[in-house]
Amino acid sequence: MSRPRPRTLAVGALALLLAAAPFVPHGGDDEGRIAASSDRTTRALATADTAPRGRLTPELKAEIDRVLAQGRAQAPGRVPVNAGPSRLAAALVRCADFDGQRYCLHTGWTESTQAQVQARAATAARAIAARPAATESTGDLDELATLRRFGRMSPAARADAERAELTAAARSVGKVWLLRHAIDGVTIPSSVLAAHPEMLAADGTAAARSRTTRQQRKTRGDYPQKAHVLNGHDVSEQHQTYWCGPTTMQMVAWGWTGHARSQQHWANKLGTTSSGTAITDMVRVTNAATGWDDKDHAGAYITLDVGDYGFGKWQLLLFRHIVDYKAPVILHPILLKKYYPYLDDDASGHFQVGRGYDKRGDKPNQIGYFEPWDQQRFDPSEPYIDRVQWRQAYKSYRANEAHFQHNIGV
Questions:
Q1: Is residue 110 included in any domain, yes or no?
Q2: pLDDT in tens, 206-257
Q3: pLDDT tens profile 262-271
Q4: Which parts of 115-171 are beta strand (E)?
Q5: End-to-end Cα spacing for the chain
Q6: pLDDT tier for residue 130 given thresholds of 50, 70 and 90
Q7: Own/partner long-range contacts of 250-255 (Cβ < 8 Å, ≥24 apart)
Q8: How far is CA 226 from the centre of its chain?
Q9: Which of 233, 299, 310, 316 fits a disulfide with 29 by CB distance 3.0 to 4.6 angstroms?
Q10: pLDDT band at residue 322, thresholds of 50, 70 and 90?
Q11: Is residue 257 domain-shared with residue 377, that is, in the same domain?
Q12: How many domains does the structure of the chain reveal?
């Protein structure tokens, strides 16, 4: 499938108008003015709505090499799978600084420090090791399985896998900056725009002119009352207990191509095992096998940590994806009965296809999603679960936050 070429702009001229600004971390649920250094800067900032993958600059390559060298120094051989969770996390969960944004291996883009991410991973791995074997699993690759999978690899194979993940992340840093700008009001430094022209709107277009004079970020109130993407008939239930990833991917791709490939096909593409599927692989295959990542939709999909998002900001991210990008979201909750009343038993981390919302005034807002899990398929005594769901958005938000990774594919 062809990919859009980065649009070019006279970056040098633009840089004269843009004042370099420090990185401002996001936080809270404010929806106020763009955090620009001046109104003149705001008018000059003709950013696109989203960004395709950009080029790998020498600075990005150097940072990838640094993280890989750190890995070789910490784990020159295979990491014993019986090593403690803290040792596994320290050796395998390492972070890169790509042009002011932090990406951590097996986790995604985050505002947390490397030490915080490693501590969360170790805590989650210990909890998984201690949980009862009878805990129901629907196919999300848990942290202990992730660490052991990479620990078993030879140093060369692990370095190749890490380089591929870091390279894909580095090429999507423009998308991260644009989301921080649109959702959080973070100023984009001129040096970042100069290095990543894929972030800029096409010069001279009506859309570009309107964006240059927009003084307000979009708020939740700027979006329509209800919206959705994807045909509600193009759905399927997972055929294996550990195939929530392949089935979610099947429905995401079905919505793009108009026809369904088998779940086995997607399991092969994702590298799914009986231990499950990683969200980073869900994002990788969405970018590689669909067109949802093109310039007219979501741009490069990324794995984004939303652990410090309030409910309002989480909803705004969903609204933007459904209305502005017209593309599905890869939801990553934990399946607990207190969040999903149709469940007969609490279960593991999970994937769902986010595809709509409904702002219902005085009633709780709803989120629309495709649910691949049907417990009745595997235990006929349990209630059937519909594929097409409209449920309280706040409960989905809480389920996402309750997952130890609290991340999402957007």
A1: yes
A2: 344 334 333 357 889 999 999 999 999 999 999 999 999 999 999 999 999 9
A3: 999 999 999 9
A4: none
A5: 20
A6: confident
A7: 251/353, 251/370, 251/372, 252/286, 252/290, 252/292, 252/328, 252/330, 252/353, 253/286, 253/289, 253/290, 255/229, 255/230, 255/231, 255/328, 255/353, 255/355
A8: 23
A9: 310
A10: very high
A11: yes
A12: 3
Tell which wins on pLDDT, 46 or 368. Answer: 368
Same domain, residue pair 335 and 372: yes
Asked if 405 and 279 touch (Cβ cutoff 8 Å), the reply is yes
Coil, strand, or helix at residue 104?
Answer: strand
Q: Please give the pLDDT value at position 73.
A: 92
Whether 3 is covered by a domain: the verdict is: no
Q: Which of 153, 182, 217 is a domain's end point?
A: 217
Planar angle of CA 13, 18, 24, nearest 5 degrees: 150
Using CB atoms within 10 Å of the CB of residue 398, give its burial: 0 to 12 exposed, 13 to 18 middle, 19+ buried.
middle
| pLDDT at residue 135 in the model | 76
**Mean predicted confidence (pLDDT) in 103-131:** 95
* SS3 assignment, position 197: helix
For residue 8, pLDDT beyond 60: no
Residue type, 147: L
| Full domain range(s) for residue 338 | 226-409
For the whole model, what pTM was predicted? 0.86
What is the residue type of 127?
A
Cα–Cα–Cα angle for 159, 165, 168, nearest 5°? 135
DSSP letter at 182? I
| Residues 51, 85 within the same domain | no
Residue of 182, 407, 226 lying closest to 302 (CA atoms):
407
Task: Please classify residue 87 by burial: count the beta carbons closer than 10 Å to its beta carbon, then call 0-12 exposed, 13-18 middle and 19+ buried.
Answer: middle
| Cα–Cα dist 195/409, whole Å | 25
How many Å apart are CA 111 and CA 101, to the nearest integer?
A: 8
State how far the Cα of 123 lies from the Cα of 208, in Å rounded to an integer: 46
Rounded alpha-carbon distances, angstroms, from residue 112 to 180, 285, 307 = 15, 26, 9
- Residues 183 and 43 reside in one and the same domain: yes
Instruction: List residues bridging with 358 in a β-sheet.
Output: 226, 366
- Percent of the chain exceeding pLDDT 70 equals 85
